[in-house]
Amino acid sequence: MGKRRQKPKWVKRIALNHIKQLISLASRVVKKDKERARRYCRLAIYMSRRYNVTIPKELKARICKGCYIYLKPGRTAIIRKKSRPKPHMTITCKECGHVSRLYLESKHLKRKKTEK
């Protein structure tokens, strides 16, 4: 058996552009057709796995890990800010009920890091 080659950089760059385009399409379509938005998100995740490309954090947080629908605040997601035990945002999917947390850096923690 031969060695597995990595994909060329130009292929990865094109794949990343397609992923961004699919997620932006999902954001526009989610009002009218939730199933089509879900399909676009699934295709974006499939492409990231197929071409070994990481989806940027800000876009990855917009996709539900439970049902792969695009999370739009008020329509398909509930977003709440909480301060305890650590400052974070909870994002609850209205479709499947999956809860994800995004931890935020507080001002207090930033000051401690810069002092050291």
Keywords:
116 residues, Single alpha-helices involved in coiled-coils or other helix-helix interfaces, 3-stranded antiparallel β-sheet, 3 strands
Overall description:
The chain has 116 residues and is α+β, with helices and mostly antiparallel strands. The chain has one domain (9-115): Immunoglobulin FC, subunit C (Single alpha-helices involved in coiled-coils or other helix-helix interfaces, Up-down Bundle). 44% of the residues lie in helices and 15% in strands. It has 4 helices and 3 strands; from the N terminus they run αααβββα. The chain has a 3-stranded antiparallel sheet with strand order 1-2-3, with no helix packed on it. A hairpin with a 5-residue loop joins strand 1 and strand 2 (88-93). Helix 1 (9-29) packs antiparallel against helix 2. The longest helix has 21 residues, at 9-29. It is flat, with a radius of gyration of 18 Å. The mean pLDDT is 89.
